[in-house]
Amino acid sequence: MSLNEHLQEEIFERKRAEKKLVATKTYVESILANSLDLIITIKKDGNIVYTNRHLDYETGYKREDVQGKYIMELIPEHLKEFMLKKLKDLNEGISGIYETQIIKADGTPMDCLISQAPVEGFDEFIIAIKNITERKKMETELLKAQKLESVGILAGGIAHDFNNLLTAIFGNISLAKMYMMEREVYNHLVEIEKASLRAKNMTQQLLTFSKGGAQVKKITSLDELIRDSANFALRGSKVNCDIFISPELWHAEVDEGQISQVINNLIINAQQAMPDGGTIQVQADNVTLGSDNVLALKAGDYIKISVKDHGIGISEENIQKIFDPYFTTKPDGSGFGLSTAYSIVKGHDGHIKVESKPDIGTTLYIYIAASPKRFQLKQKDPAFIKGRGNILVMDDEEMVRFVTGKMLYQLGYEVEFVKNGDEAIKVYKQSKKTGKSFDAVIMDLTVPGGMGGKETINKLLKFDPGIKAVVASGYSNDPVMADYKKYGFSGVVCKPFTLSELGQILHKLFESKAD
Ligand SMILES: Nc1ncnc2c1ncn2[C@@H]1O[C@H](COP(=O)(O)OP(=O)(O)O)[C@@H](O)[C@H]1O
Ligand SMILES: [Mg+2]
């Protein structure tokens, strides 16, 4: 081979190698470019050499902006020390996988999982970054949900105990009122009763919070409900409330506890939006919607309630998120108020919407289907309806048994007590044999560590299909309470109950004997 030929061969060989190198480079680059991870290479001093195309998508930076930059500039202050240690590791040839954050072009942090390693044969390191912001968010939401769940369980338990205590309080108040002839003392008792009623409402809220639960709907005058809930929410606050309620406001079939919670949540938000005080306007009107209404509600009669504030308002960006669970702009907010309101209103075949302008104020509107049925006005302190008969009371709480017994006695009934389902069945069966049978039983729904009302009624019904049983519970959200007939009960009473309520329930029970 001549020298010339040799040279030519060598040139040819080199060109081929170069071509191959270019091909390999393109090959590697196209892999990097299409990676869904963010890939950066840095020099020993931490300066960025290369970034793949995915960078702008994930972080909003342009490649030119970051190339040559010191990588530490992308790390939030509180993680700098940690990252410096990781860089030191790299310089010592130590690879690793860890979680950290980088700051995006818009200044917000991005949670990321990083895999770092030296690039073989180069004085450079590769840093592969996976955006795990969503996963982190989900983790914290899960944690929040778990926390809420345990708070819910706790709230449910507290509410149950409270309702037992309140039964004793209410019962004793109504008994004391009966014996009390002195006007002055009587007035104090009335005040105590009012305060206890508030305690009862709060317990109800706790229960609603602890479980969506079954709704207990009844015909309600929203007028009173709105006034009470609004005033209750603003107790002790420097924010005022003007309430305009149309005089002939229709009635609606609602779960009182839930609707009062909705009003409460809206009022609290309005109040929080006006940190310097001000006035909230609450309004309620009758409206009739046609079939083509923009709210996508069924045609019909509705009650439209609005809660208007003159507070900070809501930005356009946030306005679509306010009904999302956990969405909050408050440092210690739960983001639960409006999402709960939303689900409650939907559960009442209604609609909730918002109008807001930053720095001007916010109005929340609620529509609730009106009911053609009329609400029976509660008589003020109605006369107690007395009766006659032999009643068996089952409750595990001594004080509840005691006060219920006293109340029944006052109403004219004879009473016997048992602590749980087993005892109830035994005593009920025995009484049938002796001929002195019970005209009705009042049973607690849940008995810790024993047979509660739900199971007991099944067994009693088998023995005596004609039994008249009333279920009593502090868990007014329990499905049994909403649907007591399906479970075999003839009546229901929510703890705490007053003397007149107890009288009415028994009266109704015996009245229906005929049918
Ligand atoms: N009346 C209002 N004025 C201004 N912003 C409001 C108002 N009501 C709700 N928001 C916004 O909606 C978010 C969600 O409200 P909410 O679900 O009640 O949760 P939270 O009150 O715990 O933040 C609030 O953090 C706030 O940003
Ligand atoms: Mg709120």
Blueprint (SSEs and pairs):
Layout: H1 3-33, E1 38-43, E2 48-51, H2 54-59, H3 63-66, H4 80-91, E3 96-103, E4 109-118, E5 124-131, H5 133-179, H6 183-210, E6 218-220, H7 222-233, E7 239-245, E8 252-254, H8 256-273, E9 278-289, E10 300-309, H9 316-319, H10 337-347, E11 351-357, E12 361-369, E13 390-394, H11 398-411, E14 414-418, H12 421-434, E15 440-444, H13 453-463, E16 469-473, H14 479-482, E17 491-494, H15 499-511
Parallel strand pairs: 7-9, 13-14, 13-15, 15-16, 16-17
Antiparallel strand pairs: 1-2, 1-5, 3-4, 4-5, 6-8, 9-10, 10-12, 11-12
Describe the structure.
It is built from 15 helices and 17 strands. The chain is α/β, with parallel strands linked by helices and 515 residues long. It folds into four domains: 1-28; 35-131, Beta-Lactamase (2-Layer Sandwich), CATH 3.30.450.20; 222-374, 2-Layer Sandwich (Heat Shock Protein 90), CATH 3.30.565; 390-514, 3-Layer(aba) Sandwich (Rossmann fold), CATH 3.40.50.2300. A five-stranded antiparallel sheet has the order 2-1-5-4-3, with helices on both faces. The chain is elongated. Bound molecules: adenosine-5'-diphosphate and magnesium ion. Magnesium ion binds at residues 265, 268-269, 337.
